[in-house]
Structure formats: structure tokens, C-alpha cells
Amino acid sequence: MVNIKIIEEIERLREEIRRHNYLYYVLDAPEKNDAEFDALFDRLVELEREHPELITPDSPTQRVGGEPSSEFKQVRHTLPMLSLGKATSHGEFIAFHNRICDGLGISRESKVRYACEPKLDGLAVELVYREGALVLASTRGDGIIGEDVTANVRTIRSIPLTLREKHPLVEVRGEVVFPRAEFDKMNEQRVADGAEPFANPRNAAAGSLRQLDSKVTAERPLTAWFYGIGALDLEGEFPPTTHTEELELIARLGLKRIFMAKTLEGPDEVARYFEEISKQRDELGVEIDGVVVKVDEIGRQRMLGEISRSPRWAVAWKFPAQEKITRLVDVIWNVGRTAAVTPVAVLDPVEIAGAMVQRASLHNEDQIKRLGIKIGDSVRVRRAGDVIPEVVSPLEELRTGDETEIVPPEDCPVCSAHLVKEPGDVYRRCPNISCPAIVAEAIEHWASRTGMDIDGLGPKQVEQLLAEGLIADVADLYMLKPEQLIELERFAEKSAERLVQAIDASRERPLGRFIHALGIRHVGESNARLLAEKFQSLENLSSATAESLVEIDGIGPEIAASVVDFFTNEENRALLEKLDRAGVRPIPPENSAGDRPLEGRTFVITGTLDKPRDAIKAILTSAGAKVASSVSSKTDFLIAGDSPGSKLDRARELGVEVISGDTLDEFLRERGVSPK
Ligand SMILES: [Zn+2]
């Protein structure tokens, strides 16, 4: 029998979490800090775990659903999702206005009221809420039948599972988009992982939403804005009579209303709006490709009706073409920071949407093959927003016969090392750790906290030392003298000495860290530790065969091949010898028992602390501890900062040792862990 108090607490927590989500994701004005929010959320998770019979699908904990599905179910939209007619110039927009006036039987000089908004370049969706609860989400599809993407849409944090008002039926329409900054970050990561980058944020949004496994969607930073209403039953309440009122309803229900929407009088005001929006286009953080103009009054919309699945009362006024045709002069191969070698198109300079374009991305070899592109081809080049322009396609009909094939290099264009292309990787990569193109990144990785942990050696310093010719590889770091550094900008006597000391201190680090710091592809922190434990020395590891490597639990053939490749590369071997001569002596695991003094201990962190939670977590895990999200009988320590919330009560109940924020450093030092 469930206590009524528990039911009430669960309801209260859900309400509070929903309110917070609304403030955070929709209004962008949170009242609680993350720690406070986490405390609420964790408490709800805990209660629901204890009382699974009380879990409801609209609980904020139920965003990521069950098993991946094998296909998308088809969904028939209650009302068709119409596609908009287009205008691509001011003249075409005026023609639209004239058709409106003619259709309404009013003079073309009349001031028609228009609702205007940016046209998002994402994936159109429709959400169906019954009695305030999200029951269905579908893509536009062909406008009549779309695909059921409910499980995936539920993972988008800015989309409420419950509306702020309960009505029998609300259908809203909007656009799921992939924010620009996140898009660039994700593509960078995909390149690093050997996956093909997404061509543009729209493809990324579509690819993320059309995932059969909603857990994948949940990891993508999708968001959505809403700009339309489908079927509606507000039970007694009058439905909106204008588009502007529809947008107000959308906001009132707790959904993100399309930004920068304006209600304007007549075509001149709309034209000014169009200019304004196109100027701000690159700064919006999401892709838009024009402005949508709708007749505001719904009565008038009905009068105008539709024609071949497009409403007569609305138009998508698109920004001018961002594609131009020019000649592909050459292809150069660029070695990126992840050692991936990528093709870059060299073009006859051409102006596209206000910028001179001479270089464009060709993405990768597969893309070149797919496009069938050749040097000398006339090519269509697209520039979207502030992204790197890309070659869209060749114009084969313009070929003269003098075009030549694009041949990917066998050797690194920078250091001439033989490039490596692994199965499943779309890129060839330079395997040479001393390749100048990769060296800066390699040194930063070497010095990073999870590597050799050299305090004060960040990207800026690395760049400076490389530019001054003081270092060419990581081994050179160990030859640096304070007097060389003092000469440099930004260095004083103290800071120069400190850096040299920090470098010196990194001569003796656990073998696992050393292996990780080498930056062997596919060998992350935990694999590096595993290799250190199994092989005990660099000598053993460097002579290991792929066969002996794959015998280790957790090391697959891909990692094994990568390790063998690394140690057979001559430059890498030379570097290891140089490091040895420089006195860099990694400590084998048996002598570094002090390295994981918190092995087997489980911590939970709560409340507001001086250090970011991630930093504390990193310190604890690198000392061997586990960090859990909720307090249980398995918890050894609770680190409690200010406003710790329910976790502290729970810890006291269970007799878990509590460490306060201000005694944390002391606690760590006592156990031989650096609190840095
Ligand atoms: Zn190279």
C-alpha cells in the first residue's frame, strides 16, 4: 500500500521539475541552479524506483524510452500539413500581395495585416497533446502522412511532455532544429571518430530525429520552435482568430514560440522586416532560409483557401540563392588536428551571398566519388550562413574533356608519412606523431590533465613555443630552461620557473597516463590504464603483437591494430627514445599503488561547491573512485556543498559519511590525492 504522502511528494516533485524545465528551456530564465535541480530530479528517480507502480508516461524522468524500434509507424495528420509557396525576390513577394488583395476583393493598395516570422531550416513536426499530455509526434512526411517520431521527440528537453494548460486536444506545428554551435562541435567529434560529418544542420536535425533508437536522439542537442496550430479543441474557450493569437496560445501552453515574430501592416513593412532578418541571419545561432509571411486573420485565411496543397494565404520569402557556379581549379589535402586528411577545393574566386569564396569543403574521398567530381569541372558551390562553403555538384554537361581525376594522396602532404586508412574510417590519417600539422594538438594532449598533467601548458603556450622554435615535439619540452622562456611574451621569471617545474614533475607519471598521453588512436584513458596493467612497461607494450593485445578483455582488434601501428612507426619509436633520454620514466602500475588510493570507493556529490562538479568528479575517478548520482547503501561518501537538498538527509539516514565542501581538499590530501 503506497503512502498518500509519497504520491503527493511525487506529484509535487514532477510539478516543480516541469516548472523548472519551462523556465530553463522555454523562457531561458532559470530560478534554480543545476545542483538544486539535480536534487529534485534525483529524489524523483529514487521515489519512482521504490514505487515503480507510480511511474506515469508524463513523468519528467520518462523522456528516454524503451527498446529501439525497427521502423517508423505511419501517422495520418488530422489536418494536412501544407507546404508553402515560395517567393525568391521582392517582385515575387509583391505578386503574392497582389494575389491576396485580388482574392479578398480589396484594392491592391490596401494595408493587409501580415504575421511574419523567420523560416527555420530544420525538420517540420506536429505534436498532438490530449488533455495536456504529449501523445503523438510526427514528421510532416508528404503533408498527409508522416512518421511517428514520438519516442525521439520526447527526448528533446525544450518540448514539454505536459502543457501548462489542459485542453481536450491541441495540435501544434513547429520545426526541430540543430543549433549551429552544437552542430560544429558534433561534426568535429564525428571527424575525430572517423564518422562522416553531417552536411548541414538540417541534415543533422533530420538524421537525429529519424533514429530508430531514441537513446541516440537523446544525446543530440536538438531543440524546437513552434509556429502553427493544427486541430484544436479548447472545450468552450474560443479558438484564436488570428495567427498572432495562435502564437500567443503556443507561448501560453509552455511551448517555445517562434522567435522574432512580428505582425505588420502592408507589403512595405514586410519588406523592411525581410531586410532586417536577412542581416541578422548569421547571428541567430540556428539556420533560417527566409521569412514566412502569413495573412494574420484566420477568417481571411479561410476565404483565400488553398491551391494544390499550398495555402494561398502564406508564402515563404526565401533569401537570395546562396549557390554559385565556378571552376574547381585544384584540390589540396589538409591535415587536421585529428590527423584526418581532408580534401579542400580550390576555386576560381566567386562572390556568394556577399562573401568572396576561394576555398570550399569537399568533405571526404567518398563524397568526391559520390559526386563524380573532377579537377577543371564547373561546380555548384553553396554557402549557408557562416559555415565553410561546400561544393554541391559538378556540371558534367559543361565538361571539355580536359578534366582530370582527383587522386587522394598516399602520403601525408605535410610530413610524407604513409597515410593509414582503417576499415570503417572515411578518412586517411597521418600516423606520424611528429607531423607538424598534428604536433601542436599532440603536445596539448600530452600536457592535458588526463595525460601528463603539466600545469600551465595550454594551447596558447604550446602555440607560442612552437612558433618560437623552442619545441618541435613533446620530448623537447623536457629540455626547456627558464631563461629561454623569460624572453617570451607573457612569461615572467616566476611563471617561467613554474612551467619548467611543472614539466619536470611530469617526468614521473603512472604508465597508464603516459600511454594515454601518447595519443594512440582509439586508446582512451581507461584502455591506457588497462594496457599499463597488462604490460607493465613500455618495452613490453611496444613489442606486443595484435594477437596478444586482443586477448585482453576490453581490447578489440581495432585498438590492437592501432597500438601495433603506433609502435611500428619509426618516428614514434624515435620519439619514445628521445623521451627516455630526456628522463621521462613512466612508473609501472605495481609501483604506483598510490595512484588509485580511492579504488573501490563510491562517492555522491550534491549541493553547490567551490569547484565545478566535473572537476571534482575527475579528481575522484582518476584516483580510482566511482561517482554515483544518488545516495544508496553502496555509497561510501557524500560530498555536500551548500544547499545539499534531499541527498544529505538520505545519507544521514543510511549512515553515509558526509564530507563538507570546505573539508574536501583536506580529505583528499589525507588520502594522497591531489585536490588540484
Ligand atoms: Zn603528416
Written account of the structure:
The chain is α+β, with helices and mostly antiparallel strands. It has five domains: 51 residues, Orthogonal Bundle (Helix Hairpins), CATH 1.10.287; 227 residues, 2-Layer Sandwich (D-amino Acid Aminotransferase, Chain A, domain 1); 76 residues, Beta Barrel (OB fold (Dihydrolipoamide Acetyltransferase, E2P)), CATH 2.40.50.140; 165 residues, 5' to 3' exonuclease, C-terminal subdomain (DNA polymerase, domain 1); 75 residues, 3-Layer(aba) Sandwich (Rossmann fold), CATH 3.40.50.10190. Strands 14, 15, 16, 17, 18 and 19 form a six-stranded antiparallel beta sheet that branches. The longest helix has 23 residues. 35% of the residues are buried. The mean pLDDT is 88. Zinc ion binds next to loops. The site of zinc ion has 9 residues, from loops.
Total count of strands = 23
Name given to the CATH architecture of the largest domain:
2-Layer Sandwich
CATH topology group of the largest domain: D-amino Acid Aminotransferase, Chain A, domain 1
DSSP helical segment count: 24
Distance between the termini: 49 Å
Query: What bound compounds does this protein have?
Result: zinc ion
How would you sum up the global shape?
A: globular
